[in-house]
Amino acid sequence: MNKIVKKKNKQSTRKGRQLDPMSLAEVQKLLEEMPRKKDLLIEGLHLIQDKYHYLSAKHLVALAHEFKLSTAEVFEVATFYHHFDVIKESDSNDGDNKPPPPITVRVCDSVSCEISGAKKLLDTLKKLSLAVPDSGEPVRIQSVPCIGRCQHAPVAVVGKNPVDYATADIVKQKVKEKAVIPKIPKYTGLDEYISSGGYNLFQDCISEKKTPEEVINELKNSGLRGLGGAGFPAGAKWEIVKKFPAPRLLAVNIDEGEPGTFKDRYYIETDPHRFLEGSLIASWAVGIDEIYLYLRDEYAAGHEILRNEIQKLEAFFKDHLCRIHLRRGAGAYICGEESAMIESIEGKRGIPRLRPPYVAEVGLFGRPTLEHNMETLHWVRDIVEKGAESFSKHGRRGRKGLRSFSVSGRINKPGVHLAPAGISILELIDEYCNGMQPGHKFYGYFPGGASGGILPASLGDAPLDFDTLQDYGCFIGSAAVIVFSEQDAARDLALNAMRFFEHESCGQCTPCRSGTSKAIPLMKKNKWDKNLLEELSITMEDASICGLGQAAPNPLRSVIKYFPQEV
Ligand SMILES: Cc1cc2nc3c(=O)[nH]c(=O)nc-3n(C[C@H](O)[C@H](O)[C@H](O)COP(=O)(O)O)c2cc1C
Ligand code: SF4
Ligand code: FES
User: Fold this and answer.
1) Tens of pLDDT along 138-187?
2) Closest-lying ligand 3 atom to the alpha carbon of residue 146
3) Where in the chain is the domain with CATH 3.40.30.10?
4) Percentage of residues in the chain with pLDDT exceeding 90?
């Protein structure tokens, strides 16, 4: 009898947050048939965030219960990602615990948008005190890093609806209309793609008209290099992964968070099947079972396009297709780093792994993984169909191939410009961008997004390609070129980049976490302490675990080297 009483008491004093039956029912309804597998945790969090605009403690406890995970683990993952609003007690109305209103307006404050007046837009919107129609709650206004629409700067997002060339009046109107869903742009769908010869090459592959060796050789001869930033030769990567024992996986990187980069969005929103066919061919050639696509959350239209087109593709090819999983990021630039992306696909915080082992050997779910930027796969069909030379014959100054430059800033024609590798910025501005904007004189440029450093106009002849800018302390990365003029200050833009890195550092290692936050006050000073900043830069470069911390000092070092008059 005594024993029973003791047990009862123990139960009634269970520690931690208790499971709330109503919240559990709500979560179960949202999850429906979704398998309760740990790697789907972030998808589960998205379902709750989409429905309620925030994640209450009660819902997180219920989600943990459903996924058979500890509540701490679910909180840990949810709080890592910027797009999840974790509210500790859903019934609390004070301070930080207050649930956000149903509409949030996000204003991009990264380099290209800053150049185009993002700060003023943000200030004006804050003063307008916009209200959510019907409820009258104040709309939440947030500044956010680059959302991959830099050619339309300044850019805001109302709910999930991007507003290009945003003004306070346009944003106000969108809020009033509750226009929170993105428009789907016109793109080449499955039927149109097939009618122009699409998937013929894939059919030839699976019907053994081609051999994997032939395809891999063609890629190698074309000189195609990874277009996500590091530029590793694609054909060689396929061979490396193929040597590791099956089962193998393909992870496609569509996280595109580098400020200034928007080429992947452009290709998804115009011709999504080209990289899907490239992915299927890669999987066939390398002997891969399943494909995981990791798409950044900001690309809501892209998500809709891919969801629909993958469904159509599955219906068309039936049993001949390997399984394609579509996963959404949740607002974390670091998840573009390949090992962090893999962690995120596994349903965890996006924290880069220590290497070795490399993901080619031990990648997603511990399996050998071919990891590619989506644009690398976009070129596979053309190269194999038209021959390696069709790609390699392009190029200037001895460089080979084509690059999709995302060009933004003070030029007349920003956008994705497909140009020969090795082109100079002066040629790019002149031949592809219709020159500088009226009243603006070319002063400098970021050759590779926020992390690729900054070059002055006097180095306007440097060939833009992999391996050509290292001597200048810069790199081309994802070919995101931001052009600025004498009306801009390189030091302000470098500070903007450093703020971005501080915001996006995953915090795993001290040189990056502390280095980025210590650099900011130093860079705000009128006169920079150059020795101290250089010391900090060396520490970050040498002792950070991943490319984020290693590249974070590039813009500030460029300012010291090429724009000394400013600091
Ligand atoms: C901080 C950081 C962010 C990155 N972001 C992206 C990204 O958004 N998209 C991408 O494809 N690669 C990104 N990369 C590069 C990937 O780690 C990896 O090199 C690339 O996806 C390989 O694919 P590829 O061989 O096709 O280029 C990033 C790297 C770092 C260090
Ligand atoms: S360098 Fe920065 S982003 Fe990379 S692992 Fe370290 S703390 Fe994280
Ligand atoms: S969308 Fe603003 S900088 Fe890219």
Assistant:
1) 999 999 999 999 999 999 999 999 999 999 999 999 999 999 999 999 99
2) 4
3) 104-176
4) 94
Binned at pLDDT 50, 70 and 90, residue 13 comes out as low
Q: Match domain 489-567 to its CATH number in 3.30.1130.10, 1.20.1440.230, 1.10.10.10, 3.40.50.970.
A: 1.20.1440.230
- Residue 504 CA, ligand 2 centroid: distance in Å: 9
Top CATH class of 16-91 equals mainly alpha
User: Model pTM?
Assistant: 0.96
Centre of ligand 2 to C-alpha 249, Å, is 25
Distance 251 CA to ligand 3 centre (A): 25
Residue nearest atom 4 in ligand 2 by C-alpha distance: 546
pLDDT digits over 233-245, tens only? 999 999 999 999 9
* CB 149 near ligand 3, within 6 Å: yes
Residue 39 CA to residue 347 CA, distance in Å, equals 4
Give the integer Cα–Cα distance in Å for 473 and 557.
8
Q: 252 CA to middle of ligand 1, Å? A: 10
According to CATH, the superfamily of the domain at 190-386 is NADH-ubiquinone oxidoreductase 51kDa subunit (3.40.50.11540)
Confirm if 301 and 264 have CB atoms less than 8 A apart: no
Which one of the ligands is nearest to 229 CA?
Answer: 1
Which residue spans of the chain are classified as CATH 3.40.50.11540?
190-386
Question: Is ligand 3 within 6 A of the CB of residue 60?
Answer: no
Residue with tokens 């916009």: 130
Query: String of b and e for 331-357 (b: at least 16 CB within 10 Å)?
Result: bbbbbbbbbbbbbbbbbbbbbbbeeee
Per-residue pLDDT tens digits for 298-342: 999 999 999 999 999 999 998 889 999 999 999 999 999 999 999
Q: Spelled out in words, what is the top-level CATH class assigned to the domain 104-176?
A: alpha beta
Centre of ligand 1 to C-alpha 237, Å, is 14
Mutate to test the pocket of ligand 2, among 80, 513, 537 (most ligand atoms within 8 A of CB): 513
Query: Quick count: other Cβ atoms within 10 Å of Cβ 388?
Result: 18
Question: Is 390:383 a contact under the CB 8 Å cutoff?
Answer: yes
Q: Which CATH class is domain 398-485?
A: alpha beta
Whether ligand 1 lies within 6 angstroms of the CB of 255 is answered as yes
Per residue in 194-242, pLDDT (tens digit) is 999 999 999 999 999 999 999 999 999 999 999 999 999 999 999 999 9
Phi, then psi, of 217 in degrees rounded to 5: -65, -40
* Residue range(s) occupied by CATH 3.10.20.600 in the chain: 398-485
Question: Collapsing DSSP states into helix, strand and coil, what is residue 20?
Answer: coil
CB under 8 Å to 516, separation ≥6 — which residues? Answer: 498, 501, 502, 505, 540, 549, 552
pLDDT tens for 416-449 read 999 999 999 999 999 999 999 999 999 999 999 9
**Cβ 115 under 6 angstroms from ligand 3:** no
Ligand nearest the Cα of residue 108 is 3
